[in-house]
Every structure is written in structure tokens, then in C-alpha cells.
Amino acid sequence: MVKYAYNLAFTFSLLVSSLSAINANAADSDTSRAIEQGKYLAIASDCAACHTNKDGKDFAGGLKIISPVGTIIASNITPSTQAGIGSYTEQQFADAVRKGIRKDGANLYPAMPYTAYSVMTDGDIHNLYEYFMHGVEPVNTPAPETALPFPMSIRTMMMGWNLLFLNDKPIASDNTQSAEWNRGKYLVMGAAHCGTCHTPRGPLMEEENSKFLSGGQVGAWYAPNITSDNESGIGSWSKEQLVQYLRTGNLPNKAQAAGSMGEAVEHSFQYLSDADLNAVATYIKTVKPISTEENKGSRFNQGAPGTSLDDLRGKSSQAIKDANLEGLSLFQGNCASCHEPLGEGSKDQYYPSLFHNSVTGSSNSNNVIATILNGVNRTTKEGQVFMPGFGHHPNDINNLSDQQIATLSNYVIATYGKSDKKVTAQDVATVRQGGPASYLVLVARIGIIVGAVVVVILALWLYVRRARKTKNNLK
Ligand code: HEC
Ligand code: HEC
Ligand code: HEC
Hints:
Elements lengths: L1 H43 L3 H4 L12 E4 L2 E4 L16 H10 L14 H4 L4 H13 L23 H8 L13 H11 L5 H4 L17 E3 L2 E3 L15 H10 L1 E2 L3 E2 L2 H9 L6 H11 L32 H6 L2 H10 L1 H4 L18 H4 L4 H9 L1 E5 L2 E5 L14 H15 L8 H8 L15 H27 L1
Antiparallel strand pairs: 1-2, 3-4, 5-6, 7-8
Helix pairs in contact: 1-5, 3-5, 7-11, 9-11, 13-17, 16-17, 16-18, 17-18
Cofactor: heme c
Pfam families: Cytochrom_C
Organism: Rouxiella silvae
């Protein structure tokens, strides 16, 4: 009897322990699935673009984001309790990522793109949290403190800007559209934040929602109109072409990704699953078409093979003058070795054709200048594509002056693209310094900060006025 009871107890305890083992295993695999999905989301959201410094440890922060109002330093977001976010609860993490509020209650500067991440679901935030807590190595070196000049040093000031521009409601699912479309919209608005670059900004540097994806300047580069407009946007692209461009950064005889788009492809978009890339493309193809003056006339089919010096033999002196001989010789000397003397590129299009190319075919000549100055350097699973820059190395034989680049750009645009706007040396100087009204490439991404200053001044003014009124009323 005793033995039987003992056996029963033993069997029971075995059962309990194996059940709890199953439970523990289930919990383990839940956690590891969350970590896996969180890692994928961190890549889709490109957290590393700012939180991993050049040659630094993963997510240890320290990258200096230079803005018109001062330098903002990206935080250490490793799970270190002293130096990182190791002591953040999931709720505090959610508030930082979606509302721009730090653990100590202070507001983050919008250099952290919480206005886009605000649409992330609780489930995705949970997975991101699990990844940052358990899938990232803690680094115990704190990132340097951000010290902006007054009044930007007062973080509460950011509340005014948030009141105006932070939409922290989740995206409502649209039942008239497919699950794929809804997934695409969620990614485009949130993690992949296409609008951060492709939507023009308003007077307070907020994204102008009524002009969603119709083109914006991002530092030295121009992010073109990617609405579904046939002429100004990418309405003529198939869904498959858009997927190919996002995965590889190259669509032969149409477009290549350089600058910040090249970086987004390299660090983020190329790793998206086929399902997610298709979802993004499905949604983008339905974005309201917007016709923009800057992009009139499709930029994908402009131009034709160029002329060579032989073509000019026996021409009148006026024809030779019109031909921009200096531009031609700069082209032959610096560009023809790769893009071929007539600009048709190499057979395999590793060196792309310069006609039927969105950069030369755009009415906005900004990216012709940016390409010549900065070159192209993009690594994907397909390998590396590299074009040297011609304007950033004072001691380099490749170094061209602003005037030379303007002359060369005008030649390239007139010969291979759309020649309705002349490039001046001043235009080149502007792109060389990192774009209009900013001094570095990242500035436009975080240009919203300028808006915050204006809001601060406005708020102060209102406050002072009200205080004066109250004082006057008391008199
Ligand atoms: C475009 C640059 C950029 C990207 C992309 C970015 N961040 Fe940030 N993040 C920042 C900057 C800059 C700060 C510090 C801002 C400040 O000091 O006000 C910050 C702060 C934070 C903080 C607050 C930490 C603290 O205590 O200071 C968290 C948490 C955070 N980011 C998480 C993330 C996650 C998760 C992602 C990806 C989903 C991400 N960030 C993507 C720029 C970025
Ligand atoms: C960090 C800024 C940034 C982000 C984020 C970004 N883009 Fe871009 N995009 C650019 C820039 C700059 C260019 C121009 C690149 C060039 O011509 O070399 C560009 C070019 C493109 C082009 C080619 C257009 C043409 O005419 O050549 C497409 C299509 C595109 N982006 C789609 C997207 C989509 C879809 C997303 C979101 C999933 C996205 N981009 C996110 C900056 C960005
Ligand atoms: C060493 C070879 C090489 C030289 C020299 C070179 N390029 Fe390129 N160029 C490339 C490569 C590679 C690409 C990128 C292809 C890709 O993105 O898939 C490129 C891309 C371009 C683009 C498209 C950029 C974009 O963002 O879509 C333009 C325009 C261009 N080059 C113009 C020029 C001009 C003008 C010169 C002369 C100043 C020049 N290139 C010199 C190799 C070269």
C-alpha cells in the first residue's frame, strides 16, 4: 500500500516535473521567438543607423547627430544597467520608442524618430524589448551626454512640438483592403519610415501629410516623388520592379540607390522578407498620386546616347560653343572609363547607363551633383557597387571644383537627361556642404528640431503675454 502510494506520488511528481519542463520549454521558445522577431524588427526599423557608431559596438550609441541647434548624441541602448537601458521596464521602453519619453520622464529630441515608430503595435514593441534585453550584448560604457545650448537644453520644450505633430494612435486596419496591403501600410508608416525622407516638410519641419511621399530634400540628397503618379512618381513601375529596387538598390535602365537610400537598402530593406517587401510595394503602389512640378515628365525614359568629339569635327564655332566642350572633356576624362564614352554604361549595367536614369532624367538636378560629389558605395547580397566621389578629397587627383562640377553636371544633364534647369557653382557649393539650410547629411532627417525651436519661442511668447495680461488684470 505504502509502496503503491509512493509509486503514485512518484508518477505524479514525474508528471508535474515533465509538465513544468514542457511549460519552461514553451516559455523558452516563446522568448526566443520574440527575440528573433525583435531582431528582425530592429533591422527593418534601422535602429543601428543611429545607435551603432562607426566602428563602435552594436547599439552602444555615441553617434553624433549634428543639427542646426547643436549636436545630439544617440544613446547606448544595450541592456547594460549602468550605461544602457538595462533597467528600463517594457512600459518605459514603449514610451521611449513610441512617445519619445525617457525612463526619467524627460523628453527625447525628435532626432529619435518616435513620430514614425509611434504606430508600432504592443506585440512588436514587446518583441523589440525582448531582443534588446536578451539578444544584445550589454556595453558598460555610457554614450556622452547631449548638451544643447539654451533653450534647446530644456527637454520639456519638446512637449509643444509633440502636441502639434506626434500622432500616437495606432493605424486602424482597413477592412476594404487585403491583409498584405495593411501590413505594407504598417511598415511604410512605422518601421521603414519612408515618409521621413520622401515627404516634404512644412514650416515647422513637420512632414506635410497632404503631400505624402511626393518628394523631399534629405541633406545632400533629394528623395524623389514615389507616389503612384505616372509622370511625377513611380506609377509606371510594376510591384516586382519596386521590390527588386528595395532589395538590391538597382533597377537597370531606371534607377540606382545612392546616398541615404543606398544606406537604407544596405542596412535595412535588403533584409526584409519577400512577404514584407511585397507588402510594402503593394501599399506604395496605392499611395495617392501627386503631380509635382519638380518631377514633371517621367524621369525614367529621358535622354539618349551622347556625342563624341568626332561628332564635332567640321561643326560651326557656335555649335562647338553650345556643345559645352569643357563639360565634354571633363566627362571623357572622369566618367567615360566606367559609364562608356557615349554614356550607355557597361553591358551588364554594373556601370549604369546615364540615359534612362532617374538621376539625370529628373527636373531636380540635385542628385546629379550629389552623385558626382559623393559617389556611390552600396553593399548588398549582390556584392558591392562603387563609384568614387569627385569632390571631397582636397589632395585627390579626382577633386573637382564647384565650377567644374557645375559645368560637368550641365553637360551630363543636357546630353543624357532633362535639361530644363541649369546647375550653378552655388548649387554645387550647397550640396557640397550637405544640402540646403543644413551642414551635414543627417540634418534633414532630424530637421524637425528647427520646428521645435520655433514652437518654444512661440510658447514662451504666449506665456509671457499671458503673464503680462494676468499682471495687468491684477493691477
Ligand atoms: C535617426 C536616428 C535614430 C534611429 C533610427 C533610432 N534612434 Fe533611438 N535615439 C536616437 C537619438 C539621437 C536618441 C537620443 C535623443 C535624446 O538624447 O534626446 C535616441 C534615444 C533612444 C532611446 C532612449 C534611451 C535613453 O535612455 O536615452 C531608446 C530606448 C531608443 N532610442 C531606442 C531606439 C530603437 C529601439 C530604435 C529602432 C526601433 C531606435 N531607437 C532608432 C536616434 C535614433
Ligand atoms: C533615409 C532616407 C530614405 C528613406 C528612409 C527611404 N528613402 Fe527612398 N530614396 C531616398 C533618396 C535620397 C533617394 C534617391 C537615391 C538616388 O537617386 O540615388 C531615394 C530613392 C527611392 C526610389 C527611386 C526613385 C527614383 O526616381 O530613383 C524609390 C522607389 C524609393 N526611394 C522608395 C522608398 C521606399 C518604398 C521607402 C520605404 C520603404 C524609402 N524609399 C525609404 C531616401 C530615403
Ligand atoms: C570607377 C567607375 C565609375 C566612375 C569613374 C564614375 N562612375 Fe558613375 N557610377 C558608377 C557605379 C558603379 C554606379 C552605381 C551603380 C549602381 O548603383 O548600381 C554609378 C552611378 C552613377 C549615377 C547614378 C547615381 C544614382 O544615384 O542613381 C550617375 C548619375 C553617375 N554615376 C554619373 C557619373 C559621372 C557624371 C561621373 C564622372 C564624374 C561618374 N559617374 C564616374 C561607376 C563610376
